[in-house]
Amino acid sequence: MTVEPLIFELSSPGRRAARFPAPDVPDAELPSDLRRESLEWPEVSEIDVVRHFTRLSQKNHAIDISMYPLGSCTMKYNPRINEQVARLNGFANIHPLAPEETVQGALELMYDLQGILGEISGFDAVTLQPAAGAHGELTGCLMIRAWHHERGDTGRTKMLIPDSAHGTNPATARMAGFDVVTVPSDDRGNTDIDAVRELVGPDTAGLMITNPNTLGLWDEHIKGMIDIVHEAGGLVYNDGANFNAILGIARPGDLGIDVMHFNLHKTFSTPHGGGGPGSGPVGVAQRLADYLPAPIVVRVDEEDGPRYTWQEPPKSIGKLHGFNGNFGMHVRAYNYIRMHGASGLRQVSEDAVLNANYLRARLHNDYHVPHDRTCMHEFVASASRQKKENGVRTVDIAKRLLDFGIHPPTTYFPLIIAEAIMIEPTETESRESLDYFADCMLQIAEEARTDPDMVKNAPHTTEYKRLDEVGANRQLNLRWVRERELEPQAAD
Ligand SMILES: *Cc1c(COP(=O)(O)O)cnc(C)c1O
Asked: Is the minimum distance from the CB of 166 to ligand 1 under 6 angstroms?
């Protein structure tokens, strides 16, 4: 007999974890179109719920457990003080439809955050509405399109995007109606400026560039490329996912970039992914300010002091998010920025860059680093040598790291590097934790030489071994459904 662990199918009719107090307002009938015939809830007791979520949290890696050097994602520590501030009653329990005069503090915070993000990045106006970086990209692309159309320039259908770009760049450009033209990279890891010169023309809507780029490098020709695109009548979008490398050091707006998104959940320490909703504010140069999504927060100075209110920019592309974006993330990011101040933010970037270069220096003799020059906040190594000599691939190294309790770096991205291992330690790792990671990577390189099967069969110590990742993606099974309670399905 095999005993199956109690994992998901815990529902039993009549069990409950909570009882709500009797309502202190009169009962009202819900409109019938808002009502469902039945509600598919699992029926479980409080201890079942607590154990379920505690167990799930233990199966996942988290930044609160150990290092999470997932390149491009900036998995820095999420300070607890952010959470305390976001939970303040006046922030957490307000309603987006509350009358303006009752939520002046929240509006002031949003107004200040718009201004601070603009100041850090060199942009004239900022919207806080987009829900994540990709959403910000779409916002930016729609504004670029609206700007050209407003001037009667409707033949600009092409968006230039480097081959090192994150997949969201071509995806959002396409969603905004542009055709994507891929720009190659040069042998120093820059976007190829000569190719940009050849590709621009009267059909160019713009260039969507990532600087610092996804190889973790500052593009050496960024200024020249911006000028070429502007001279051809296009606008320049900067994917700001890598902003953590340049806070207080360089401002994209000063370089002549027209529009850029911020990932508050990367650069400004608000939680990622399953940890909470993201937030992808967008900053623009003056000429795009009128096109921002509506509404934005403005300040009106009156005799008895300032008042904050909503305003629709005159040529707004409209609304991109219900209400005003993920306000809880605005609070966390605002708190993080104010806690650090100007010099503290610069220190963040200096430490992030130092940590990445430290790891690069510790690893570059044992792993191939295709563009082995001073990097920004991350760098891209490769397992091409291990693959050629011992048949050990990047995925094997990533799985082996799990045995050491470390989340793997980003793998197989950017696409232009074979067997890519993209490492971003962030500034919140100590010297000791950087050394632990480097030691593990060096040991794995040694194992690849002496005992390759051990690496190829990793992980060895985790609860689950290699998973069918394609199956997990295609047949997501995240939600309890009642049939499974009635007819237990064979475990597959
Ligand atoms: C994370 C990332 C994005 C997308 O941002 P999301 O907030 O995840 O939507 C885009 N480009 C790059 C380079 C990124 O790292």
From this structure: yes
